[in-house]
Amino acid sequence: MARFNILIKHNLPWEEALFRRGLFTNLLYIKLGVKNLKIQWKTDTADFQYKNVTGSIIIAGNAVIIIGQTTSLNGIKGIGELFEEAAQTAFHNNKPLPQPHA
Q1: Helices in the chain by DSSP H: which ranges?
Q2: What are phi and psi of 21, to 5 degrees?
Q3: CB of 53 closer than 8 Å to CB of 79
Q4: pLDDT score recorded for residue 3
Q5: Which of 44, 40, 42 is nearest to 54 (CA)?
Q6: What is the Cα–Cα distance from 83 to 25, expressed in whole angstroms?
Q7: Is the Cα torsion angle 8, 11, 15, 20 positive or negative in sign?
Q8: Phi, psi angles (nearest 5°) of residue 58
Q9: Percent of the chain scored above 90 by pLDDT?
Q10: Interval 42-79: pLDDT, tens
């Protein structure tokens, strides 16, 4: 079984990190396709499935952890890289995202 483990460190406040999970999810949908990716969030954790890849996402106090596994080696490196790129874009920028005006 092929696996990937990704750790993206951040120093965002807890609420900001949770807010950015939406951006992270949207980036994954753009890269992988809404029809192909299933992701279910439960506050700070999520389970996901993309084709033959399954895994978990954890938003910890100072990091995002992504663990994935598949029974096929075909494309696992590329999928892991897509998840890592999306997480870096969403969580690594330590500047707060602009908030919509009320």
Answers
A1: 14-32, 76-87
A2: -65, -30
A3: yes
A4: 87
A5: 40
A6: 10
A7: negative
A8: -130, 125
A9: 34
A10: 999 999 998 888 999 999 888 999 999 987 766 666 88
Single pTM value for the model: 0.81
Spatial separation of the C-alpha atoms in residues 59 and 80, rounded to whole Å: 17
Q: DSSP code of 66?
A: E
Q: Is it the case that residue 35 has pLDDT exceeding 90?
A: no
Cα–Cα distance measured from residue 42 to residue 35, given in angstroms and rounded to the nearest whole number: 20
- What tokens were used for 95? 């500047």
Alpha carbon distance 102, 22 (integer Å): 19
pLDDT at residue 94 in the model: 57
Do 91 and 41 contact (CB within 8 A), yes or no?
no
**How many other C-beta atoms are found inside a 10 Å radius of the C-beta of residue 77?**
11
> Does the pLDDT at position 102 exceed 60?
no
- DSSP element (H, E) containing 6: strand 2-9
Contacts of 42 (CB under 8 A, 6+ apart): none
